């Protein structure tokens, strides 16, 4: 069986879905519920999520965020899925820290794009610095931030993706970071692509492995 996590957000008639597939047998993220929903207090946006348990004999390593928050007189919709590998310590760290690092950046309200890039990099550096405590795990990430129900900012690392559904048509909004598809770029920068025991097949991801940098 395959564990499927689906995050659906509807904004003014458009639906944004974030989907992750992973083999596992328990609902992760230490959530008290395997499904949930909510809506904006300031607009038509609403969301729902569902986690379906598989039967593979190893623990769930995926975490998610799905909520609306009020900050500085504005509403933010925060949505994310973190697909963990080789343990749940890194996705748990991302669940707790990534959005905080984005929102607390001094440029967030004037330049969200720059703040998201800076926060992704800052969080990656923090994970590497805490590698003795976090262990040998890693995680992909896909995040969506809805600002005042009007502007949606999407970012991802690894092969977790965001898909826009418009009138029944699926439009991929992110690029999967996979070694085989990015081999040329990796090798042009002096790197190499190789199968390594205990690793996972993403050209970019959050990881406490030093070789992921």
TrEMBL record:
Residues 46-213 form the PPM-type phosphatase domain. GO terms for molecular function: protein serine/threonine phosphatase activity. The keyword Signal applies. Residues 1-15 form the signal peptide. Keywords: Signal. This is PPM-type phosphatase domain-containing protein. It comes from Turnera subulata.
